[in-house]
Design brief:
The complex is a heterodimer.
Chain A (H helix, E strand, L loop, with lengths): L4 H18 L1 H4 L43 H13 L3 H14 L4 H13 L9 H9 L1 H24 L4 H25 L5 E4 L3 E5 L8 E6 L3 E8 L2 E5 L5 E5 L3 E3 L3
Antiparallel strand pairs in A: 1-4, 1-7, 2-3, 4-5, 5-6
Chain B lengths: L1 H22 L6 E7 L2 E3 L4 E9 L13 E15 L2 E14 L3 E5 L9 E6 L38 E6 L4 E3 L3 E11 L3 E4 L4 E2 L4 E4 L6 E7 L2 E14 L3 E5 L1 E10 L7 H6 L2 H6 L3 E9 L3 E6 L15 E9 L3 E3 L3 E12 L15 E3 L3 E6 L6 E12 L3 E5 L3 E6 L4 E6 L3 E6 L59 H56 L2 H19 L10 H7 L2 H19 L6 H18 L3
Parallel strand pairs in B: 2-7, 9-19, 21-29
Antiparallel strand pairs in B: 1-3, 3-5, 4-5, 6-7, 8-10, 10-15, 11-17, 12-17, 13-15, 14-15, 16-19, 17-18, 20-22, 22-25, 23-25, 24-25, 26-29, 27-28
C-alpha cells in the first residue's frame, strides 16, 4: 500500500497536467477575440484600426479574422500597418506576434526593418533568447510543468522509497534543469509585460504628469518603452537609453494587455 | 589730612562750576570721538569711543572704512541736572578690527568732528601702506608660534591657508590636469568654510570639483591644522602664460587683545579658554593661495588627424562584437572601449561608417570613471550594425585620434579587425529580404494595400505575409503570467509538498510505535530476568523455567512481530528456527512444561547454565 503512494501522486499530477494542457486554446474559439484588432486603449485620438469602417481606408489595414490571436495573423496585421505607414501599430503587432512565435525569423526581420525605417535602432537578442526561441514560449512553459512533475516525483521516490536510486536521481536532475530553463524564460519575458509602444507620431515626455510641465524629450513613433506608475492619464516611462518621464497614456499601447 | 583737603577743594570747584553753569544757557548737543590706540598690529583691535553730550539728542552713525570692521561692544549713559537744566552724555564703545595692514583715515561721527588716523602694522613689524582691498594678502609671513618654515602661505593671522598642488605647469589647450586644492584650518581658530574654493582666473576652467573634500590632520610648525582637500581638473582656455590662484571664504576667530597680551593664549592653545575670556571674535575673510604660473601651449596644427575630436591625453582602444556568428539581417552590437587618462568629455567617435558590407547606426556612449574627477576611466561606445551580405565578414579596425601631451604629437589608436560569420537568413535564399509588395507575394493578400501601391515606400522591403494555419490563442500574454497556467504548477507544488510532509509524518509515526514497543518489551524482559534470578536463588525450577520461557518469547516476538509473544510455542520454533538455536530454546520450552508437573531437581550449575543461555539470547535479540 505504501509503495503505491508516489504513483498515486504522479497519476493525479499527470491528470492535472493533461487536463490543463488540453484546455487552453481550442476552448476560446467561440469567444470574441479580445481586442486583438484594437492596439490597446488609445481610442479617441488615434486612427484605431477597428474592424469594419474606417475613415482613412487607404492607410488603415483591416483587422485579422475572428477567433483569437495567432502569430501569423498578427504578423500579417503588422505588415499591413507597416505598409500603411503606421510604424507604431506595426511594431506593436510584431511584438505581440513574436510573443506567440519567437522562432519566426520573419517577425524579427520585419520588426527590425520597421524600426530602422523609423530611425530607431534594431532590437538585439541574447544567446539565451535565441536558444529559447527555438523551443517557443508555450512549449517551454509546459516543459517546465513536466520538469516540475519529474523533479517532484523523483525527489519523493528518492527520499522515501530508495529503490532504483540512480534512475530517479537522473530524473530529478533532469526535471530541475528543465524547470530552471522554463523559469529563466519566464524571468526573461517579465519585462515585456511592462513594455509599451509609442503609437502616435510623437510622444512628448514631461517632468511630471501634468500638461503644463516642461517637456524633457520627445519620443518618435514606434519607440518601445518600459512603463511604470500611472497617474491622472499619464504613464511613467523609461526609454532604452535610460531616460524617464511622464507621457500621456493615449500615446502608448501596451504590448501585453 | 591731605586727601581731605583735596576733597574740599573738589567740592569748592564743583560749587564754582555750578555757579558758572547756572548763569549760562543749556549747552547745545555735541559729538566727540577718539580712537585708542592709534597704532596697532594686525590681529589686534583698537577702541573707538564716541561721546555725545548736551541736552538734546543727536543721531550718531558708525563710520565706514574699507578694510576696517566696526562693531559696537558697549554703551553708557550719564545724566546731570544742573540748576534745573538736564545734561545728558552717552558714550558708545566701538571695537575697530583691521582686515589688513595700512594707514586708515576714519571720519568723525558727525560732519563737524575731526578725522582720526589708525595705523595698522603687519605682524612682523614692518609697516605697510598698501591700499585695503578687503582680502587677506597671501605671501606674508604669518603669525605662528615658533615661526613658519614650511612652503605653506598662511593667512595674515595664521589661522588658515590655501594651497594648490599642480603636477605640471605647462599644458596644452584642451588638456586637463588633475589638481588638488588644500584648505588648511587651524584647529579652533576657523569657525567655518563659507564656500567652495574659487578659481581666480578667467584663463582656465575648473571641472568636476569633488563635492565632498577629503580631510586629514596636519601639523604645520607644530601647530595642528585640519586640511580639506578637493580634487578637480584644470584646463587652459587659450595659449599664453598666465597665473592663477584660489580663494576660499571662511569665518575665523581673531584676537581682540594686543598680540603681546595674547602670548599666554597661544601658549595655552585652548580656543575654549580664549573664548571664555572673551579674547576672540569672529570675522569673515577670504584666504588666497599663492599664485601659480602656468604656460598654456596651443595644439599643433600640423599632423592633426581628420577624425581628431579634441581629446587630449593618453588613451588605448579595443573593440568587440556581441556575437561572432550571426544571421544576415540580424543586428549585432559593436563595442569600442577607450581607456586611459585625459579629457574624456572630448573623447568621441563615429565608429563604423555604413558601407557595402555593414549597415550601421548612431553609436551610444557610456563613461565609467576610475577616479572622482573623471580623469581616468573607460568610455564605451556601442553601435548597432547589420551585415548586408552572408558569408565570412570582417568588421574593419576602428580608429580613434587624440593628442598625446606626453609625446607632444597627435596619435591614432587602432583596434584589431573582428571576423564575423554571417549565415543566410533562414527562409530567404538571398540575405536581402524579398522586396515584396502586397500585390505580388503575400500568401494571404487580405490587406487593402494588396491591390494597390504600398502606402509607405520605405516599407517595401518587408518579408511577405504568412498563411494563417496555426491554432489561435486567446491571449498574447505568455503562459507564465496567465492565472490559469500558474495554477497548475502551484497545485503540483502543493501536492508534492503535501505528499512529502505526509510521508515524513507516516515514517515518523511508524518509528515512534516501534520504539514504544521496544521500550515495553525491554521492561518486561527486565522483570522476567529478575524473576529468573530470584527463582534460581531459591532453587525453584518451575518459576525459573516459566520466566525463562517468557523471556525467550519476548525476545522472539521482536523477530516475529506477526505472532504475539504469549502465543509462541514449540511448533513455531520448529518452523522458524534452525539447528543449535532451535534446540536450545526448544529445550527450555520443554523443561518449562515439565517443571510445572514433574518438579525437576536442578543443581546450582544447572541454574547458571540455563541463565547464561537465556542471557545470550537476550543479547542476540537486543544488541544495544
Amino acid at each position: 500500500m505504501m509503495r503505491r503512494a508516489p504513483w498515486g501522486i504522479s497519476i493525479i499530477a499527470l491528470a492535472v497536467f493533461g487536463s490543463s494542457h488540453a484546455s487552453p486554446a481550442p476552448t476560446a474559439q467561440a469567444q470574441q477575440p479580445p481586442a486583438q484588432s484594437m492596439p490597446a486603449q488609445p481610442a479617441q485620438p488615434q486612427p484605431v484600426p477597428a474592424q469594419p469602417a474606417q475613415p482613412q481606408s487607404v492607410s488603415v489595414p483591416p483587422a485579422p479574422a475572428q477567433g483569437g490571436y495567432s502569430a501569423p495573423a498578427l504578423y500579417n496585421y503588422a505588415n499591413a500597418f507597416a505598409r500603411a505607414g503606421k510604424p507604431g501599430f506595426a511594431v506593436l503587432n510584431y511584438e505581440r506576434a513574436r510573443l506567440l512565435d519567437p522562432s519566426d525569423p520573419d517577425i524579427d526581420a520585419n520588426l527590425n526593418h520597421v524600426l530602422v525605417a523609423s530611425g530607431l535602432p534594431p532590437e538585439t537578442h541574447t544567446q539565451f533568447e535565441r536558444m529559447t526561441a527555438i523551443a517557443g514560449t508555450r512549449t517551454l512553459a509546459w516543459l517546465g510543468v513536466l520538469g516540475l512533475l519529474l523533479a517532484g516525483i523523483g525527489a519523493l521516490r528518492l527520499r522515501f522509497y530508495p529503490r532504483h536510486r540512480r534512475k530517479f536521481a537522473v530524473a530529478t536532475l533532469l526535471g530541475i534543469v528543465v524547470l530552471g530553463v522554463s523559469i529563466a524564460d519566464a524571468v526573461n519575458l517579465w519585462p515585456v509585460m511592462h513594455e509599451a509602444v509609442v503609437i502616435t507620431k510623437t510622444a512628448p515626455v514631461r517632468v511630471s504628469p501634468t500638461l503644463i510641465e516642461e517637456t524633457l524629450f520627445v519620443m518618435p513613433e514606434a519607440t518601445i518603452v518600459s512603463t511604470g506608475a500611472a497617474h491622472d492619464g499619464f504613464v511613467l516611462v523609461r526609454t532604452a537609453a535610460g531616460r524617464t518621464g511622464w507621457t500621456p497614456s493615449t500615446n502608448l499601447a501596451p504590448i501585453v494587455h | 589730612m591731605k586727601a581731605r583737603a583735596h576733597r574740599w577743594l573738589g567740592m569748592l570747584a564743583a560749587i564754582a562750576l555750578y555757579g558758572i553753569a547756572g548763569t549760562s544757557e543749556a549747552a547745545a548737543p555735541s559729538v566727540d570721538a577718539a580712537i585708542e590706540p592709534s597704532q596697532i598690529e594686525m590681529g589686534d583691535s583698537a577702541q573707538l569711543t564716541i561721546t555725545t553730550s548736551g541736552s538734546g539728542t543727536l543721531s550718531v552713525s558708525l563710520p565706514e572704512v574699507s578694510g576696517l570692521e566696526f562693531r559696537v561692544v558697549g554703551q553708557s549713559r550719564q545724566i546731570q541736572i544742573i540748576n534745573g537744566a538736564t545734561f545728558e552724555s552717552t558714550s558708545t564703545i566701538v571695537r575697530v578690527t583691521p582686515e589688513l595692514p595700512g594707514v586708515f583715515i576714519i571720519p568723525g561721527p558727525s560732519p563737524n568732528s575731526p578725522t582720526m588716523t589708525l595705523r595698522v602694522m603687519p605682524n612682523n613689524g614692518s609697516g605697510s601702506s598698501s591700499p585695503p582691498d578687503g582680502s587677506a594678502s597671501p605671501g606674508r609671513t604669518p603669525y605662528l608660534p615658533g615661526g613658519s618654515n614650511s612652503n605653506l602661505h598662511l593667512s595674515a593671522d595664521g589661522s588658515a591657508f590655501v594651497n594648490l598642488e599642480i603636477p605640471k605647469h605647462e599644458l596644452y589647450v584642451g588638456e586637463s590636469v588633475p589638481v588638488e586644492i588644500q584648505v588648511g584650518m587651524r584647529d579652533g581658530f576657523v569657525a567655518s568654510i563659507n564656500g567652495l574654493p574659487k578659481l581666480n582666473s578667467s584663463d582656465f576652467t575648473l571641472n568636476n570639483l569633488s563635492r565632498q573634500p577629503e580631510h586629514a590632520a596636519k601639523t604645520v610648525n607644530g601647530v595642528p591644522f585640519t586640511v580639506y582637500t578637493w580634487h578637480s581638473l584644470l584646463a587652459g582656455v587659450k595659449p599664453g602664460v598666465y597665473s592663477l590662484n584660489f580663494e576660499t571664504p571662511m569665518t575665523v576667530r581673531v584676537r581682540t587683545r594686543p598680540q603681546a597680551d595674547s602670548r599666554i593664549d597661544d601658549l595655552l592653545g585652548d580656543p575654549f579658554l580664549q573664548n571664555l575670556f572673551g579674547v576672540m571674535v569672529q570675522k569673515n575673510i577670504n584666504v588666497t593661495s599663492p599664485e601659480a604660473a602656468m604656460k598654456v601651449l596651443p595644439l599643433p596644427s600640423q599632423g592633426k588627424p581628420p577624425d581628431f575630436s579634441g581629446a587630449v591625453g593618453a588613451f588605448k582602444i579595443s573593440a568587440d562584437v556581441s556575437s561572432a556568428k550571426n544571421t544576415a539581417g540580424d543586428p549585432l552590437t559593436l563595442r569600442m572601449h577607450v581607456t586611459g587618462s585625459g579629457t574624456f568629455d572630448r573623447v568621441d567617435s563615429n565608429m563604423l561608417e555604413t558601407g557595402p558590407e555593414w549597415k550601421t547606426y548612431e553609436p551610444k556612449s557610456n563613461f565609467s570613471s576610475n577616479d572622482p574627477t573623471g580623469y581616468r576611466g573607460e568610455k564605451t561606445f556601442e553601435q548597432p550594425i547589420i551585415a548586408s551580405q552572408p558569408g565570412a565578414q570582417t568588421i574593419p579596425p576602428l580608429t580613434f585620434s587624440y593628442f598625446n601631451p606626453g609625446t607632444h604629437q597627435y596619435e591614432t589608436a587602432q583596434s584589431s579587425p573582428i571576423p564575423v560569420a554571417v549565415s543566410p537568413a533562414a527562409n530567404s535564399a538571398a540575405n536581402e529580404p524579398p522586396p515584396v509588395t502586397a500585390s505580388t507575394s503575400g500568401p494571404t493578400p487580405k490587406s487593402p494595400n494588396s491591390a494597390g501601391a504600398p502606402a509607405d515606400e520605405s516599407h517595401t522591403g518587408l518579408r511577405p505575409d504568412h498563411a494563417i494555419t496555426e491554432a489561435r490563442f486567446d491571449s498574447v500574454t505568455p503562459p507564465y503570467f496567465q492565472a490559469r497556467f500558474i495554477a497548475i504548477p502551484t497545485v503540483l507544488a502543493l501536492l508534492f509538498g503535501g505528499g512529502w510532509m505526509a510521508l515524513r509524518r507516516r515514517e515518523r509515526d511508524a518509528l515512534d510505535v516501534r520504539r514504544e514497543r521496544e521500550r515495553v518489551r525491554s521492561q518486561i524482559i527486565r522483570g522476567l530476568s529478575e524473576q529468573m534470578t530470584a527463582a534460581a536463588a531459591k532453587r525453584d525450577a518451575a518459576p525459573f523455567f516459566n520466566a525463562a520461557r517468557s523471556v525467550l518469547q519476548q525476545t522472539l516476538n521482536a523477530r516475529w512481530p506477526d505472532i504475539p509473544a504469549e502465543h509462541i510455542i514449540t511448533d513455531d520454533l520448529d518452523a522458524r528456527l534452525e539447528d543449535a538455536e532451535k534446540h536450545e530454546i526448544r529445550e527450555i520450552f520443554t523443561l518449562a512444561d515439565e517443571a510445572n508437573y514433574s518438579g525437576h531437581a536442578l543443581t546450582t550449575a544447572d541454574f547458571e547454565r540455563w541463565t547464561e543461555l537465556v542471557r545470550r539470547h537476550i543479547a542476540v535479540e537486543t544488541p544495544s
